[in-house]
Amino acid sequence: FREGQVDAIMAYLSGKDTFVSLKTGGGKTLCYALSAICFEGLTIVFSPLKALMDDQKRELINAGIPCATLYANLLQGASIQEKIFEEIACGLIKILFVTPEKLASNNGFCRFITQLYEQKKVHFVIDEAHCILEYQDFR
């Protein structure tokens, strides 16, 4: 492990809000990926960078960690998104990468997250937080 990773993982697993600031390639993904494996629910990673989301998803799937991506735009059909929600409900997905716009623009998704939150079955990660200039402005 690199400096700070074990402390971040342990804090996260003990239920504490955790802020991890590491340089690019410093191991932030490992912190939330290991935590997600140990957590019974879903870890939602909000990221404004679709290419990064796709790269992280590919790497995690190759490592045996089931994950998926949801975008706000229409690049994904409703049937794909419904399949993702079904897999989440069955516990087949551990990490869900989501664009911030998906949360801001989809009431159904917000209700879904709220249900998970009320059941204490969801954790949140804000990736690339430095891209957030102000509330609801991620670009």
UniProtKB/TrEMBL annotation:
Species annotation: Rhizophagus irregularis
Q: Which family does it belong to?
A: Belongs to the helicase family. RecQ subfamily.
Provide the catalytic activity annotation: Couples ATP hydrolysis with the unwinding of duplex DNA by translocating in the 3'-5' direction
Arranged from A to Z, the UniProt key words for this protein are: ATP-binding, DNA-binding, Helicase, Hydrolase, Isomerase, Nucleotide-binding
Q: Quick check: keyword Membrane in the entry?
A: no
Q: What class of enzyme is it?
A: isomerase
Q: What is its EC number?
A: 5.6.2.4
Instruction: Write the protein's name.
Output: DNA 3'-5' helicase
Q: Where is the Helicase ATP-binding domain?
A: 9-139
GO BP term (any one): double-strand break repair via homologous recombination
What Pfam families would the database entry show?
DEAD
InterPro entries for the chain: DEAD/DEAH_box_helicase_dom, Helicase_ATP-bd, P-loop_NTPase
* A GO-annotated cellular component: chromosome
Instruction: Using the record for this protein, list the coiled-coil segments as residue ranges, or answer none.
Output: none
- What GO MF annotations does this protein's record show? 3'-5' DNA helicase activity; ATP binding; DNA binding; four-way junction helicase activity
